[in-house]
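Hi everyone,

Forwarding the result from last night's run.
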Amino acid sequence: MPSLFNKQINILIVDDEESIVEFIKMGLEAEGFTVHTAFDGNEAIKLAQEVSPHIIILDIMLPGINGYEVCLEIKKFIKTSIIMLTARDDVDDRVKGLDLGADDYMIKPFSFKELLARINVRLRNSFPELADLLSIGDFSVDNGAHEICYKDKLLELSPTEYNLLKYLLINNGLVLSKSTILENVWGFDFNGEMNIVEVYIRYLRDKIGDKDHNIIRTIRGAGYKVAIQ
């Protein structure tokens, strides 16, 4: 399932260890984030002013200006969440970082899975409006506005069509049975015919021009799948 936060999110990684930077960068780009990198404090401050990152992953021990000073300076001019990622695990170091404006603190060595979870927490807390936006291929979903665009064109969808298409999109790559779709789109108490799913799939295919069923695929004996790279 794709992240609710994706390529619209700018993340700045600041660390003088190139191997760590590349490891984090590769993982975050695979999740769909836009990633920027800096290897010293001055470069980090300059880049932060240019790209206004939503999240900054910041080491403390940096050439020139250390991470504490970088954190203090950046917090003066942009809204961002800073996760300090450092080998310094002393309680006083953590307290100092948090007192200077850091939003979270992780110790090396670290788990990328945990770092990703903390990034998503910070995004939900600091930028809740972005959780309503989702981009998958040529589709963009605005949950707040209850709208879906395809190839930059707004689709005219009924509430049920919207809910069905959104459900298919957020489960991109997964095969969904008719019963699963019914439970999640129509609800557990739906008493109508199961073929209602087929009817609405046909409506959606017509509206997005999917004549060859390349976007919404029928998986014989299993259900339906959206497969978008």
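The first helix runs from residue 18 to 30.

Cheers,
N.
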